[in-house]
From TrEMBL:
Entry protein name: Urea amidolyase related protein
Pfam families according to UniProt: CT_A_B (PF02626), CT_C_D (PF02682)
GO molecular function terms noted in the UniProt entry: ATP binding; hydrolase activity
Gene3D superfamilies membership: 3.30.1360.40, Cyclophilin-like
Length: 539
């Protein structure tokens, strides 16, 4: 067992096999370590988050080393049968590549026993490992497809998998199934769990109804649309007149669902979300609007509103008697009243990137897996907001509105294009993949490119070089955290934001410390970033 730091609030446990990782996961689920969070299994690893005020990194490491790496004999695996039509686009070409006929590939695939190893990439997507030691390494496609249908049965590397929903992907497609791998309305929402045994059962083409494939395969809006009329008897609402850019519903995210392949998501700048909610008297995690600018909303009924986050010009407008428009500036970080029929209009941010619009009572959209957040990568939660969307305002109020300091960051302190922001990092878990460890990362300033969203920010600078021994190596998929500085083969780092995949296959060289994570959501294009090392937590 090798234990590595993954930031200041997580440890990465490296093991020899997937079976050991699964055994350690089972042990932690059955008997949690006080202070440890939900573990995230990988191909041969377990990512274990922790609360530093409850357990130290060294204390957690010692507790992990005491755990068994063999599952109990009485732990009987559940068997899941997957009816499969073998008509995939890559069946014939893959069989030829492996030196088999298509019939032989199907025979071997169905004769093998597969085990659910770990989940990642997308909600419910599981990496299934084969018990046949002669099963070949299957190459991924040279160019990934932009759209893989829900229910596609696929192969890549040593794994098999089933795409639970429509998504891009580079695995070889050999068949399809209508088994409901993922359904967010079901308990549990995923058909299988780590350690389950999976058998693929060949069935004729008419046995799979494509229209029934994978409920919830296409993420659908769960908020009223343009033709909806607010029920004023039930409360207040706001109408989205212009959704602007990058406008979503966010709260503090989902917890306890990483084992399902579902990320935490949540506000990209949680500090500003909490401050906006505090200003209007909401609980800190109430749902609010997150936007990158140019948003316009109209109140239906009187609504108390607060703005925090990016420095942005904001105005309240309403039609004036006799024609024309009356306009007044909207303040930042203090509550104000948006009267029935008035519009709030935001401009372009001049500092920072994201603004939070909290309404007293919170945005009252349905809860999915414990959160109202939109996960842009996983397709979980409300759809991105569009013009005409009606958002009900709830009654989730905790206290009176705040008129003093609500703890919002000073918008004037947020980064601008060309300005340098220093981010503190804990080096690890994989600096040994690079010639000079993390030295290249910390020795220069990096530019925030336009390739940035809630999944991650691509940085540009002098690339990190892999060691000769790792030049062509692939990292077995392992759990990832927000703030991870992941480095793909081109050496240009990617900073992970809240919608990052639960697992990833590029080595992280460092992780941004928890206290600096809110800054990631406020980095605009062309801003500069410098990384500064901190002491690594002892393990």
């Amino acid at each position: 067992m090798r234990i590595l730091p993954a930031g200041d609030t997580a440890l990465l446990v490296e093991l020899d096999t997937l079976a050991q990782a699964t055994a350690l996961l089972a042990s932690l689920v059955a008997d949690p370590i006080p202070g440890a969070g939900e573990p995230v299994p990988g191909a041969r690893t377990l990512l274990v988050p922790f609360r530093p005020h409850a357990v130290s990194a060294s204390g957690l490491a010692a507790a992990l080393r005491s755990r068994p790496l063999v599952r109990p004999d009485d732990d009987v695996a559940r068997v899941v049968d997957i009816p499969t039509v073998y008509d995939g686009e890559d069946l014939t070409s893959l069989a030829a590549l492996l030196g088999w006929s298509p019939e032989e590939l199907v025979r071997r695939h169905t004769a093998a026993t597969w085990t659910v190893g770990f989940m990642g990439f997308a909600p419910g997507f599981s990496y299934l490992t084969c018990t046949d030691p002669a099963w070949p390494q299957v190459p991924r496609l040279g160019s990934p497809r932009t759209r893989v249908p829900a229910g596609a049965v696929a192969l890549a590397g040593p794994y098999a998998g089933v795409y639970p929903r429509v998504s891009p992907g580079g695995w070889q497609l050999v068949g399809q199934t209508d088994a409901a791998i993922w359904d967010a309305t079901r308990t549990p929402p995923v058909l299988w769990a780590p350690g389950d045994v999976v058998r693929f059962q060949p069935v004729p083409p008419d046995a799979v109804n494509a229209t029934r494939r994978a409920p919830g395969a296409e993420p659908a809006p769960i908020v009223p649309g343009a033709d909806a009329t607010p029920d004023l008897d039930a409360g207040r609402a706001v109408l989205v007149v212009d959704a602007g850019r990058g406008t979503l519903i966010q709260d503090l995210g989902r917890t306890g669902v990483a084992h399902l392949g579902v990320g935490q998501s949540g506000a990209a700048d949680p500090r500003s979300l909490r401050a906006a909610n505090r200003a209007v008297g909401n609980p800190p995690g109430a749902a609010a609007i997150e936007t990158e600018g140019l948003l316009r909303i109209r109140a239906s009924g009187d609504v108390v509103v607060a703005l925090t986050g990016a420095l942005v010009t904001a105005h309240v407008r309403r039609d004036a008697a006799g024609g024309g428009v009356r306009e007044r500036p909207a303040p930042s970080s203090v509550p104000f009243l948006l009267h029935d029929g008035e519009e709030l209009a935001l401009g372009e941010p001049t500092r920072g990137r994201r603004t939070y619009v909290a309404m007293r009572g919170g945005v009252d959209v349905p809860v999915t897996l414990g959160s109202r957040s939109t996960d842009t990568l996983g397709g979980v939660g409300p759809a991105p907001l569009t013009a005409g969307t009606v958002l009900p305002v709830g009654a989730d109020v905790a206290a009176a509105v705040e008129t003093g300091d609500v703890g919002a960051p000073d918008p004037a302190s947020l980064p601008t294009p060309g300005q340098t922001t220093t981010l503190r990092i804990v080096v690890g878990p994989h600096p040994d993949w690079f010639d000079d460890g993390a030295a290249t990362l910390t020795a220069q300033e990096w530019e925030v490119t336009a390739l940035a969203d809630r999944v991650g920010i691509r940085l540009a600078g002098r690339p990190l070089r892999r060691t000769a021994a790792r030049a062509d190596a692939e990292l077995p998929s392992e759990g990832m955290v927000t703030g991870a500085v992941q480095v793909p083969p081109n050496g240009q780092p990617i900073l992970f934001l809240p919608d990052h995949p639960v697992t990833g296959g590029y080595p992280p060289v460092a992780v941004v410390v928890t206290a600096d994570l809110p800054l990631l959501g406020q980095l605009p294009t062309s801003a500069r970033v410098r990384f500064a090392r901190t002491d690594e937590p002892g393990a």
